[in-house]
Amino acid sequence: MDKNFSLGEFQALVDEVLIRHKSILDILSKVQESSARVNRAVAKASTSCGCIKICAEKPEVPDDITFSKLKSHMSDHVEGELCTTCEEKIKQEISTNLFYLFALCNTFDFDTEKMTEDYYKQLKLLGKYGLL
């Protein structure tokens, strides 16, 4: 990848190549569809391939735990490692989802670099407390 690659360049390229699904309704439905494809690819990694196992359960969290220590009691519920095939499929589906999210930003003239920078500053300032 080009060392000087930026979100702005990706956003400009999305704007340049998106022709067929330029309508806001098309973009919204493509964002939703691509999100569903990400979900499906992860589910298939577990149910069809079996390279990962999803073991979701309610976390055991002590009543007296502080918020700053809560992270150590939380789990992503994924066991195992993605195989090469599933990893590539999930990456491809996430990339497609990003494409349509950037297309949505283009529709409203949102600067993704500025949005990312602003959100980065918010996360740095508020940390984990900003996500409550």
UniProtKB/TrEMBL annotation:
Listed Gene3D superfamilies: MazG-like (1.10.287.1080)
Top-rank lineage group of the source organism: Bacteria
Name this polypeptide is given: DUF1573 domain-containing protein
